Amino acid sequence: MANEKRIDGFTGRAAVLRGADIDTDRIIPARFMRCVTFDGLGEYAFHDDRAQAKGDHPLDDERYEGASILVAGDNFGCGSSREHAPQALMRTGFRAFIAGSFAEIFAGNCTALGLPCVTLEAGDLASLMESVELDPSQEVAIDIEARQVRCKAGTFEAGIRDGTRQQLLEGTWDATAVLLEAGATIETAAERVPYLNGFTG
Amino acid sequence: MPPGKSLFDKVWDLHAVRELPTGQTQLLIGLHLIHEVTSPQAFAMLREAGLSVRFPRRTFATVDHIIPTDSQIRPLSDNLAEAMMVELERNCREHDIALFDTPSGHQGVVHVIGPELGLTQPGMTIACGDSHTSTHGAFGAIAFGIGTSQVRDVLATQCLTMARPGVRRIDVTGKLGGGVYSKDVALAIIRRLGVKGGVGFAYEYGGDVVDAMTLEERLTLCNMSIEGGARVGYVNPDETTFDYLAGREYAPRGEAWDRAVAFWRDIATDADAPYDDRVSLAGAEIEPSVTWGINPGQNCGVNERLPRVEDMPDDERASVEEAYAFMELRPGEPLAGTAVDVAFIGSCTNGRISDLREAARVAKRGKVAAGVRALVVPGSQAVAREAEAEGLDEVFRSAGFEWREPGCSMCLAMNPDKLVGREICASSSNRNFKGRQGSPTGRTLLMSPAMVAAAAIKGCVTDVREVL
What we know:
The complex is a heterodimer. By secondary structure, chain A is α/β, with parallel strands linked by helices. Chain A has one domain: Aconitase, domain 4 (Alpha-Beta Barrel). Helix content of chain A is 31%, strand content 15%. Chain A has 8 helices and 8 strands. In chain A, the strands form 2 sheets. Chain A has a 4-stranded antiparallel sheet, covered by helices on one side. In chain A, strand 4, helix 4 (104-112) and strand 5 form a beta-alpha-beta unit. The longest helix of chain A is centred in the middle third of the chain and has 13 residues, at 122-134. Chain A is globular, with a radius of gyration of 19 Å. Chain A starts with 8 loop residues before the first strand and ends in a 10-residue tail after the last helix. By secondary structure, chain B is an alpha/beta fold. Chain B has 3 domains: 7-162, Aconitase, domain 3 (2-Layer Sandwich), CATH 3.30.499.10; 166-237 and 263-285, Aconitase, Domain 2 (3-Layer(aba) Sandwich), CATH 3.40.1060; 289-467, 2-Layer Sandwich (Aconitase, domain 3). In chain B, helix 13 (353-363) runs parallel beside helix 16 (449-458). Classes of the chains: A alpha/beta, B alpha/beta.
């Protein structure tokens, strides 16, 4: 089922965004969410950070042009649940994320879009960041099946939750179809929940 | 006998539709709350897939993020905001979903109206496209924020694909001192466990301090769970919970009420339930707290000296240096005395009637200091009515505060309420992220509503205990 949606990994050039606790307000400031579609969000990714960095931001660094993997620090995507954040990053060309750790809702939103998020131990993350900064032209490979990240600096063990990994490998990350498969089991489940039945019985 | 279970596990098991081949659970969502920002794209996806809303009676909508708090007359002066309102109205009409808009008299911040209408009840699974959905856990519900694709999933199937987290019990023991509020407890917990300490956990709050809290205080505590990385935070239901719910519009009545209370008592954590982790804090050690940095974990007691970079753990130093540079605050000095430009009282964290009463007690002691812009934004129309009936609006106005209409306002500044330039805001909201309050360079100091009122009348960060 859904074989065309199977994601067993991703390979591409990477960009490095240093710093911990990068929140989703920084990824997409709230004022740009006054919209009813996600179209056009890409140009506002990291809008305020970029303006303040006056060109000295990884997203404006020409060495990272065309990068499709974003390498970030700890707790990336914390704060607001806004899917606008991964949507904006996807629309600027990112297709996968490597970080020290991810905030849960952000990681869940990425999975729902088929954007893999994998974590690295601190030492490995530092090596990857350094390696990519030295040679941004290199290809970085994320292997979901083998739970690895490979780059010029070596092969690192990558962390990803079992369920998420399975969703990507099976192509079931777009959950609606899977949830619909339960059919009338959903209504049956609802029947045994007291508050959904007026506490009768 | 099998070991006891936590409320979390009982609620999870009750709502498990099936185990998925991935090892995740297909979880039934008992209550779905939506608002104008994160739902329009979900309805569009639904339309594109030719799907309908599976349980339209289990989704409720309101408008909060984008609505102005000065004039709410339609059409809104911001065309983009108006378009979002129109879209929500259309979606609710087409899919037969109840919408609590301004004419309904029930409009307000989504996490304020769910509880006050009695929609939020113990033992429920609750989802909303907003990270502060953890708020509803105050009733003993499992409530969490979701993204827009998941809003689509709930609309289409009333279910979500979820992995079961661990449960961390957090006991707050003893008693809180005077002038110390639920907000301070939340900040103390996040300071202790860190902003990512809760990733992979649901937080169960308990202990004497939490047992003694009012339901509204528990809402504040659970609201901030996500700021500590925990998607879910909850308090076991007890008499406080039942007393709060009795007689509310959507609460059960008559015989159904009695059966409901029995179910709610039963769903609470068993005495011998195991936890994946346990943490304890002493209530007496918690001070009125204020953030000094750019995430909610970067906070300390109002009179405490700000930490020196070299005293911080290695992996936090870069973040601390970034925080000091952005905030222009100095290590080794206390926050008390830091001048503020703006004071904001409101939000899903602290925009309820009890918050306004505490702030009003302080506001009575003085006038808003010269040069300070002070806003009071009730969390809902019901909160506004109650406050006005008690004369709190007059207390605030005569002290020089602006009394506004309900909405999210300056918590996230998707509406006209924003900081300007480098302004510093004493704020009762939940996030002090860079740019959060609408100015990319604006600065936020999180604190309790009473502390915000104290800062407003003194013109600087002030220990509220010196004013009361």
